[in-house]
Queue: 2 jobs
Job 1
Amino acid sequence: MEEKYDVIVAGAGMAGLPAAAMAAKKGAKVLLLDRNNKENVGRKTNWGWICGDAVATSHLDFIKSNLGLSFSYPELEQEVEGVYAISPDFKSKILFDEGNGYVLNRPLFEGKMLEHALKQGVEYRTNFEVERPLIENNYVVGIAGKDEKKEHKEFKAKVVIDALGISTTLRRALPQNEYVERVVDIDDLELTGRFLYEFDLDHEDPLLYTPKYALIHLNQVIAPGGYGWVFPKKGNRANIGIGVQKRSLEIRNKKLNKKDTLQSLMKEYATSIPVFKNMRLYNEGPNGGEGYWSVAVRHQMEALTFNGYIGAGDSMVMPNPISAGGIGPALTAGVLAGINAADAIAKNDVSIKGLWKYNLDFNEHYGKKSASLEVFRVYLQSLNNDIINYGMKVFLTAAEAKQLSYGLVPELSLSAKFKTILQGAKNINAFRNLLYVVNKMKEINAIYEQYPKSMEEFPAWKRRITQEVKEVKEKFKPNPV
Ligand SMILES: Cc1cc2nc3c(=O)[nH]c(=O)nc-3n(C[C@H](O)[C@H](O)[C@H](O)COP(=O)(O)OP(=O)(O)OC[C@H]3O[C@@H](n4cnc5c(N)ncnc54)[C@H](O)[C@@H]3O)c2cc1C
């Protein structure tokens, strides 16, 4: 038997929860589906809520102003004053993301968002496995899946919001179309490990652990093509993890004649931080604090809508390409998806055209600031530790790094830098390449400023972006160690 809704939100995570609450707040009849039970709302996989859990306050403010929902301790577990990126030789650190933020208690945070969505009148079905979209006349008209008894079930709606995260079974099964891409390149993924540790603290060290800052360790030997992180939680606890690019890991292993895996690197990194003594994994489900998952670090899908379909969060590869921060864009996109789904239904047009405004809204609020950062990521992955050490000391000032972290293209103070750049072909070449990267970022930002106002202009616009990114990837190949 089919049941009919205005909006189905598939996935009750960082994107799906605000999407459902927002659409319901605007009067839509909303069904929210997730494979988790209520106690585990937001859990990504059996491994748990695999995430660094750090989010900037500005994103929480966006939820407050749109949904009227505010957060405090304990779901905002630990306040931090910013994020430091630290060079492989530990000689440079750059305050990458100034301004305060929080390391979340993720189960509590998502639990609070769920309660809020239910208060708005959202209907919530747990233990439901979403298997595929229902397609009729080139429209998504609902979803098919299995309920808690493993029985086949279908639900229909005017709009389906895909908030299933990186492993989405919806986006990947859309009809072939020139708007939403169905595949993400493996080179654009970070394979990640994340451990939750309790420890006895030997001493604080601003380069290794401090409860005041989130720390990122760049190191192509320890985390090839990615980085390691130590994010403080309340008391003597921390969220520790690494992200690696598969291709960079293979090159690194070959160069060093090693056979390391994500798991072996993760364990080595987590247990080799000398300020922690007597480390114990703690909590979060059957795996006791250990977990592995993936995050995409390319520019977001260029178009986020299809007929009867909107994507939000990791299903649309929205995380920041440098930091992999995806909570902020997921919350933002969720709110905007809920608004646009309800508005399109009210106007009786849920075609790509009727939903197009969502693309413009996301671009304006987030997308245009983060897309060009993919270019910087590809460049960074082509540098070895020596050049990263040198570059962090000489190429980028703190102010420039901060601009980058806000999605701005740094205005490199060139003459000052040229004076300080030492002899050495490799460094000069890397600096020239940085100039190229900065120019490329400007070009991409300019293209995103002209995001197509209508779906008809989109294919030609997309070809420009695809060409720019292709050029950068052909120029810079992963080259760790
Ligand atoms: C190791 C790691 C560290 C990270 N660190 C940070 C960080 O510090 N800060 C930050 O901002 N971002 C971070 N991110 C990214 C961030 O976690 C994600 O961007 C964010 O969770 C995206 O939210 P989402 O709702 O789109 O997807 P998800 O959080 O993945 O939620 C998807 C939901 O859909 C459900 N679901 C999936 N498939 C199905 C199905 N077939 N049927 C039914 N239900 C299904 C899942 O159970 C889940 O509830 C990190 C990611 C990783 C992997």
Note: The two ends are 58 Å apart (CA to CA).
Job 2
Amino acid sequence: MSSDSIRLDGQVVIVTGAGHGLGQAYARALAARGAAVVCNDVVAERAADTVAAIEAAGGRALAQVGTVATPEGGAAIVDAALAGFGRVDAVVNNAGQLRNAAFDEMTVDDFRAIVDTHLLGAFHVTQPAYRHMKAQGYGRIVFTSSSAGMFGSPWQASYAAAKAGLVGLCNVVALEGAAHGIRANAIMPMAFTGIGEGGPPPYPPDVLEDTAASLQPIAHLMTAEHCAPLVVYLASRDCAETHRVFSVGASHVARVFVGSTSGWYTPDGRPATPEAVREHLAGASALDGFAVPESMNDASRFVGANLPSGPT
Ligand SMILES: NC(=O)c1ccc[n+]([C@@H]2O[C@H](COP(=O)([O-])OP(=O)(O)OC[C@H]3O[C@@H](n4cnc5c(N)ncnc54)[C@H](O)[C@@H]3O)[C@@H](O)[C@H]2O)c1
């Protein structure tokens, strides 16, 4: 393992939502390692604050004010990188917001706004950046998922759907990008940033206590700075990973994955009856002997590999 420091000198990194919270910490950490950082935010003062902090520390950055939530907005961010610094080496899709509500009270407008910001926002920025990366034969892309999306969180149906969708987007960008030197990973950060402040209560009252209890042992470690080192690594040339999801924050980093159990097969290869499904589903759900497929085809091969021998 190399002990050389990870540097991004001469590299240009876009960070969306760089004006506050995690995005600001990422932008500052990337600039501290030599990257020229395009600091996007929909709030002008926030983007300017981050650029001022980077410049005060001797780094290079430019502010780009606009939304990720439209195709034009995404293109403008990539254009700003090309106009300002001449290239795009990495994109950190981070911009985000919350509009929590109980599922039966969630409005379609709020649901759409969340999907537009997180999921379509990442598409709008990443697609034009990917085209440049493909042409230059190199790129790094970070998508921001969330444990709310991968594991579930009450009152966050819109957010969770968008965040789980980002893992699907990452999977495909990683597979398609591999031949072009493009590596894509998703992160699930955890930090107190004030996201959602001023909006509706973040969690239903009946789970608030459990949420507080679950966070209590790690609350003092939940800073944005605890999440930034992973992002610097994933955005750098040193990044050896692709097609992965990492949980990060509170002093830890861990891989999160979607696996498949080896399951239950009908003995004769014929369709099961609903009653047989009822009988065998618990066993088919047992976590011994699971696999973590690397693609849809890999998942199909896993199903085929476990076929019981005998006539079908
Ligand atoms: N804080 C956490 O624990 C946590 C956990 C999981 C995932 N995340 C995700 O991490 C990302 C950053 O969250 P944070 O906690 O730092 O939030 P934050 O509110 O501190 O920062 C988000 C920034 O994004 C900007 N933004 C919002 N909508 C935008 C848009 N359409 N275009 C451009 N900029 C926009 C905001 O102005 C803000 O500056 C989000 O995607 C969030 O969902 C955060």
Note: The CA atoms of residues 219 and 250 lie 8 Å apart.
